[in-house]
Amino acid sequence: MKQMLNDTKVKITLRVIGLVLLVLAFLLLVPSAKAAFPEKPIKIVVYTGPGGLIDISARKFAGVAAKYVDVNFVVENKPGAGGIVALKKVIQAPADGYNLYACTKSNIAKFVQVGGEGYVDALHWTAMLMADPECVITNRKLPIHKWKDIVSDAIATPGEQTWVGPAAGGLDHVTALKIWDKYGMDAKWIPFKSGGKALAALLGEQGVAYVGNPRDALGNPDLFIAAVSAPKRLDAFPDVPTFSELGMPNLENEFMWRGFALKKGTPPEVIEWYDELFKKVSADQEWLDFWAKGGIDVAYVAEPEFSKLVSEDAKVFEYYLKKSDILPGDAVGFMAKLASGTSFNILAVILICLWLSGSYMVHKSQYSAILGRVLVIGFFLIVSILFLLQSMNFPSSSAVGPAAVPRLWIFMLIPLNLLLLFKTFRNNEAIAETGPRVDIVLSFVGFLVIYLFAMQIFGYFLSTFAFIIAGLYYLGYRKWRNTFIIAGVWILFSYLIFYKTLYVPLPLGMLFENLF
Questions:
Q1: How many helices (H) and strands (E) does the chain have?
Q2: What angle do CA 131, 137, 138 make, to 5 degrees?
Q3: Is 141 helix (H, G, I), strand (E, B) or coil?
Q4: Which of 189, 182, 187 is nearest to 168 (CA)?
Q5: What is the pLDDT of residue 463?
Q6: pTM above 0.85, yes or no
Q7: Beta-carbon neighbour count of residue 257 at 10 Å?
Q8: What average pLDDT does this structure show over 300-326?
Q9: In 334-421, where do the E strands start and end?
Q10: Which CA distances in Å does 415 have to 245, 379, 406, 419?
């Protein structure tokens, strides 16, 4: 009887467990009702610091949007590398619609410059909200400040006239190239870090013309808008002639667009929610009035028209950047071809195999000390050659570009290694007495492997700082104060020259990209 009761309890317990499992399976298999988007604040990721026009656009959008949706918009500034830092923040986040990329036409130029056409495809180009016409601004105090005088002077003095603007290869620069093409002008472009600094240079008579937007001339009576790229005169600037009026109708539609993009793969219902919001904001009178005073056309363009516009912009930028030698042209030299794609990978494999073969020969040779030294020097030569070939595809221009500094270091390393190789064979007897030192090579390779892995997690700056300190310690250098100064100076140099001046997108690492 007792056994039967126990069996009954076991059966009841099993049935209860089975019922619970069935309920759990039902809850897991049957999709739950999706909560309405959004459930939390939305980040608007801006690629400039506070105060820039795209930052102002994002904050104004957040304020106007608050009239129509009950959600908090948080503007997050992620400056660096011409918009790539902000872009990575968006595309590394989930495609759930909670990270909105505030973008401009200038971002496309930067994507093309760094060979990042894939960046364009990584985004869903959700909405273009405004078109800000490009214009030529001059210094009213200069004798040459009207458009016809500028054209006459440029043709009379080919290659002598100087134009200023922000960055080389950006939208304003490409607009200047288009203008020069149409009018048969030959002028020089002097890039500055920002539009404000370029305008200051124009006022300081360091240039004849500045390419930007009409809003840039507001508030300064010395600035004169010589011509604007628009189908008709702007209501906010009725005295400014269009290029069509000046005899060049092919320049009537050059403008800086500003808009928003989401990560590709964002759910359709989320995109639909944004479309409705963008339509309401674009029709809002406060929004219209705010931009009208700057001569900006509020023009809402949704996907797929916006995506088509972006693709066309990328092709135009590529054409003019190649034409101005900022990007290598279609007829690149043998070295650049060798450095690209599969050819470079094959060459790298061949050189590494030769180096590994040399490593094996060292162990089998009675001259292991000399060959070990040759092996170390050969390793540095291989690395220098590979980096030199890779730099052939870096953006370049008449000004200092991202390829200049790496090549400078490479051109110093190659002669230095050849000199060491010469001294090795010249003093082979003295070197032979020291014995084999293949461990130096193997340790150095180990350091490099650890460094490359650490860079992916902790980023270039922290990993390089630690790598320099560890390397100097391994080489027997024990003056810690000097060690930290050397490492710190190199990091500062990399930040100011590579990251801030040349806009080389140094990796921040998964840890810091996720945090910031």
A1: 19, 11
A2: 180
A3: coil
A4: 189
A5: 85
A6: no
A7: 22
A8: 90
A9: none
A10: 59, 14, 15, 6
Supply 337's token pair. Answer: 């071809």
Task: Of 516, 391, 388, 387, give the one whose Cα is nearest residue 461.
Answer: 516
Dihedral, CA of residue 228, residue 232, residue 238 and residue 242, to nearest 10: 30
The partner residues of 139 in beta bridges, in order of sequence, read 223
- Poorest-pLDDT segment among 95-109, 130-144, 318-332: 318-332
Let me know: does 384 contact 337? Beta carbons within 8 Å: no
Q: How many other CB atoms are found less than 10 A from the CB of residue 330?
A: 5
Place of tokens 């300190």: 469
Can you give the pLDDT at residue 28? 43
| Residue whose entry in the numeric block shows the structure tokens 């840890």 | 511
Here the tokens at position 484 are: 């930290």
Report the range of poorest mean pLDDT among 151-160, 207-216, 340-349, 450-459: 340-349
* Identity of the residue numbered 510: M
What string of H, E and C letters represents the secondary structure of 322-334? Answer: HHCCCCCCCCCCH
By DSSP bridging, strand 123-133 and strand 135-139 are unpaired
Residue 435 has pLDDT above 70, yes or no: no
| Mean pLDDT, rounded, of the chain | 78
**Beta carbons of 2 and 10 less than 8 angstroms apart:** no
The model's pLDDT over 28-50, given as tens digits with 9 standing for 90+, comes to 444 444 557 899 999 999 998 88
Please name which of 103, 114, 108, 82 lies closest in space to residue 317, comparing C-alpha atoms. Answer: 108
Residue 194: how many other CB atoms lie within 10 Å: 14
392 DSSP 8-state letter = T
Angle between helices 105-113 and 84-91 (to 10 degrees): 90
DSSP, collapsed to helix, strand or coil, labels residue 163 as: strand
